[in-house]
Amino acid sequence: MATDSSTLPENTPANDAVPDRMPLLQIQELHTQFETKQGTVRAVDGLSLDLYEGEVLGLVGESGCGKTMTALSVMGLLPGNGRAVAGEISFEGKDLLQCSAEEMQQIRGRKLAMVFQEPMTALTPTMTIGRQISEAIEIHLKLSRQASRERTLDLLAQVGIPSPQSRFDDYIHQFSGGMRQRVMIAIAFSCQPRLLLADEPTTALDVTVQAQILDLIKSLAQEASMTALFITHDMGIVAGSCDRVAVMYAGRLVEEGPVDDVLINPRHPYTQGLLGSVPSLESEPGDRLFSISGLPPDLASLPTGCNFWPRCPLADERCRAEEPVLEQYGESQAACWKAIPLQMA
Ligand SMILES: Nc1ncnc2c1ncn2[C@@H]1O[C@H](COP(=O)(O)OP(=O)(O)OP(=O)(O)O)[C@@H](O)[C@H]1O
Ligand SMILES: [Mg+2]
Predict the structure, then answer these.
(1) For the chain, what are the domain ranges?
(2) Check whether domain 23-248 has CATH 3.30.365.10, yes or no
(3) What is the DSSP string of 216-236?
(4) Are 303 and 317 in contact, with CB atoms under 8 Å apart?
(5) What is the pLDDT of residue 341?
(6) Ligand 2 (ion): which residues have CB within 5 A?
(7) Which ligand is nearest to the CA of 64?
């Protein structure tokens, strides 16, 4: 279906929603790897991504494509032997990859926060949740113990935890999965960060609770004029909550752009596949919609050329031999030799 943006010549801004200013966060050519017995696992493989002040960017892609490792690279919290071996992550003009552990700790508390996919790994089981939140507030906002306690109670109420007074002294194991996520959100918001990274909760939460959690983050972020990265599998959440969307496949960015453009005119066959498995009002006879069969590649032995060619119904010789580069399509970008060109009116 043609939209206003698809009728514009290339490189012409289609609307005012995409700001003409420096990104708050700029990831450039990030390579995050794990050394394993099977070889080097390329969890993030040359990813470049910009996040502009005040926007909500959705990061989507199949399980294992590198979404969490991207966010943890930004936070400086990669697990085990994971390392950001190359690239730059510029935040407020500073390269986070060059910061010392102490500097990162300061930035994390005050400017950057993350809602983790697995709350139990990020929370301290031996400390009451009230103290975990209020201690962070005391340290980073330099408030008194009493003022921190009051702010903690307000936050717990704000994230929808009933009877905050009586829950203040509870431990995390006393909370359900959804409530743990809410505690994580309270911690993430406690120091009023400029940038929030929200990783989709996977374990045990049903889709309704997940949607509620992301709605909560979205409304809190809006109130506080926060910039946010939403990691999700759910294109419905992207459509409802995000301004722009970035699609990852096997550690690489394959498509990126305003939600209205990418969801209606996906140019990469992988994005089309992700959307093709969702019934769409926009699909018309002849549209290249399909479900993706097969599995993502082994990140320790990636194919030559495009990472997606083994699963792509459109792949040809060039796709198998040459890695596609990101091309601009109006306000969006896609890395595919077979990308659908802009339709001129
Ligand atoms: N500790 C580790 N050792 C080796 N490889 C790892 C380790 N942790 C992650 N990886 C690799 O990094 C890749 C990216 O993982 P990541 O957690 O970022 O995926 P994801 O996109 O967040 O997936 P999901 O949607 O399931 O959360 C995985 O495919 C995995 O192979
Ligand atoms: Mg993940």
Answers:
(1) 23-248
(2) no
(3) HHHHHHHHTT-EEEEE-S-HH
(4) no
(5) 67
(6) 68, 117
(7) 1
